[in-house]
Structures are given as C-alpha cells and as structure tokens.
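Working notes for the structural subgroup meeting. M.R. asked for a predicted model of this chain before we commit to crystallization trials. I am recording the input and output together here so anyone reviewing the notebook later can reproduce the run.

Input as submitted:
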Amino acid sequence: MVAIKAPEDAYTAEPFVPDRGGLAALRRAAAECRGCPLHRDATQTVFGDGNKDARVMLVGEQPGDQEDRQGKPFVGPAGRLLDRALEEAGIDPSEAYVTNAVKHFKFTQAEPRKRRIHKAPSLREMTACGPWLAAELAVVEPELIVVLGATAGKALLGSSFRVTQVRGTVLEEEIHGRPERLVPTVHPSSVLRADDREAAYRGLLSDLKVAAQALG
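Returned structure, recorded in token form:
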C-alpha cells in the first residue's frame, strides 16, 4: 500500500496560489495554504496588508506572536516602531504594502501556557512560501522593495545575502522574474533587542531615508 503524502510534505505553496484575482483572492486562498508544515501550529495565515497601488513594499521575515493572533502583519511592537521610522523618513505607512517572506508564525514553546518564542524559518520554509510573495509582487508592482532583515533578504536574494554588507544601498535585481529595486535594512525587532536601541534606531532611520530618496 502506497502512503499518501500530505500537501505540506512537498514544501511549496504553488498549488494553493490562484491563477487570477487581486489581493483579496490571494488572501482568501492563502488562508487555506498547506504548502509547508508551519500551518499546523500557527493560529492562522498572516497575509500581506496595505495599499494595492503602493509604491513601496516592505518585506519582513514572518509574523510574530501578536500578528499570529490578530491575522495582520506588523501589528506588534516592531510594527509600531517601523511606522514611526517610516514617518520620520518621509514614507507614509498608510501608502505602503507590508508583508512577510513566510506567512505562518514559527515558534517554540516550553509548555502550553508559556510564551511562544519566535524561531527563524528555514530556507526550505522560505522557499515553500515564495509563490505567495511572487504573487503579491505581481499584483502590487511596487517601485521599491524595502527588505527588513536577513531572512527576508535570503528569501528574495538568495542564501548568500548578508544584511550588514548591503544595508542602506539601492540594489537592482531580478526577483521572481521581475526587475526590482530594493533597499535592505535591519528588521525593526532587532532595534528593540539592541543594547543601544537609540543607535540601532538611527541606523534603521538612515536606511529608510535612502528608500525615501529612491522613491523620489
């Protein structure tokens, strides 16, 4: 008797991505994604959110605890810090589109009632989720992508990406078959964890000012 493989064993979201439709259709379809095992423990899929005509798309790593509970990206402390930095840099957060490279929260938990601790997604999990990011880029068609942190950078630019080497610069690369301009920076959650939070915030702000200038 041949064992039937679960869809998540294939590690690709491709079969779940609709052929047509806008962001609303993508969001509905993503809610049913079983493209990798991360959906089993997460509360829900956390799809991208924001202006479908956005000039700038912000791509983070994965949803955190608050995002997993609320179903929206960047609604926790890191999201609030990011909004503040965007405004200071001259980018209106309400006119941006925000999403994550991975759409389900990956975490470890010592006991059922204990706090859920964020765990970085693997390259295999990022690759599995890639078709969703490709679909978002195709619909939104942003003029600029702001890459937030190492995981998002690896998801978009490959495993050799190092955020420290290219942060605050404008890159031109082909992403999912489209020529894109990207400005990498750190993830806002790293600012919250930094020993010198003020210096880390100034670094993030400086990178976002480069993004604002690139948008013109």
